[in-house]
Design a protein that fits this description.
Layout lengths: L1 H19 L3 E6 L7 H18 L4 E3 L12 H12 L5 E3 L19 H12 L14 E3 L4 E9 L2 E5 L4 H4 L6 H24 L5 E5 L24 H14 L3 E5 L6 E3 L9 E5 L8 E6 L7 E6 L8
Parallel strand pairs: 1-2, 2-3, 6-7, 7-8, 8-10
Antiparallel strand pairs: 1-11, 4-5, 5-6, 9-10, 11-12
Helix pairs in contact: 3-4, 6-7
Length: 313
């Protein structure tokens, strides 16, 4: 009886390992849809149709759901919310600068950025769930006033979003209200990052989605993988390096902002386990499919998903 019990326990354990080792896919996109709605909305719909047909288990949109020169009106923002909700997989969304920090621009409608941020939080993050047709519950930082910072676990992989947008993370020293907003949110983001890595201690890998390209300028000027003091990404970036190194398992950083499909190892000295994926955007309105296989050393492999509406015949 003891032998049979031990054998059963081993079989159960092996079955659990095999279940956990099953590969799955998720799709990342960002910086879309840009331009005249009459032109780009049909193109975006074609991309959404293609993504839905691929049936990923999750979609990660890293923000900038419209261009910086498109008005930040309720109508335009809610139109993009409807598109996110038309994706058939659960959707994690990280807020971009085009949705709020840059809304003060005349072409964007001369809105109050903080009012637009409040609008996004109210409408896009009303409940602690993902967006998309299929909703999944998420952990969030809503108790601290940042419901947009979310986290969920999928097949032994922890997915995290943090509100780190372009335009220097809203660290605009000429605007005291922007500085105050940045300081509070930056501290909250660092706390959320720390809490998320702690929550992921038993996960096999971690995926972090943010909007900003933290490496676009003033990055690593001295060769020591550091940001300049005036960078709005200095605190968050340094904490990401520290926590990723301590995590010592694969980390995938997904971001947008500068519209180029690109993969790098941004921290080869201090956190070589971090793979950074910049998604395409703007005129390159495509997506990226990521296969996650924790049974492989790299865990993450990527493939460009082209938009059929933009493929040249």
């Amino acid at each position: 009886m003891m032998l049979r019990t031990n054998l059963l326990a081993i079989l159960v354990a092996l079955a659990g390992l095999m279940a956990h080792a099953q590969p799955f896919t998720f799709v990342a996109m960002g910086d879309t849809a840009y331009g005249d709605p009459a032109e780009v909305y049909p193109q975006f719909e074609a991309l959404i149709k293609t993504v839905n047909e691929r049936a990923p288990q999750l979609v990660l949109h890293v923000g900038d759901i419209k261009s910086g020169s498109t008005p930040c009106s309720d109508e335009n923002l809610l139109a993009q919310l409807a598109y996110l909700n038309s994706l058939s997989a659960p959707v994690l969304y990280s807020i971009g600068d085009n949705e709020w920090t840059d809304c003060h621009r005349k072409k964007a409608g001369a809105f109050d950025p903080l009012e637009r941020l409040a609008f996004l939080r109210k409408n896009f993050f009303a409940a602690p769930t993902t967006l998309g047709t299929v909703k999944s519950e998420v952990a969030s930082q809503a108790a601290d006033g940042y419901p947009e910072n979310t986290r969920l676990v999928l097949n032994d992989v922890t997915f995290v979003t943090a509100h780190v947008p372009g335009s220097n993370n809203n660290f605009q020293i000429s605007d005291i209200s922007a500085v105050n907003e940045f300081m509070a949110r930056d501290a909250a983001n660092v706390k959320w990052l720390r809490d998320s890595f702690a929550a992921a201690k038993d996960s096999k890998a971690l995926v972090l989605g943010i909007q900003a390209n933290m490496f676009e300028s003033d990055w690593n000027a001295g060769g020591a993988e550091v940001w300049e003091p005036h960078s709005g990404f200095a605190n968050f970036g340094a904490k990401l390096i520290e926590l990723s190194a301590a995590f010592a398992k694969p980390v995938l950083l997904v971001y947008g902002d500068s519209h180029n499909y690109n993969q790098t190892r941004p921290f080869p000295l201090n956190a070589p386990n971090v793979l950074a994926l910049e998604v395409p955007g703007e005129k390159m309105m495509d997506a990226v499919e990521i296969t996650v296989d924790i049974a492989t050393s790299g865990v993450f492999s990527t493939m460009l998903v082209q938009n059929p509406a933009l493929v040249k015949q």
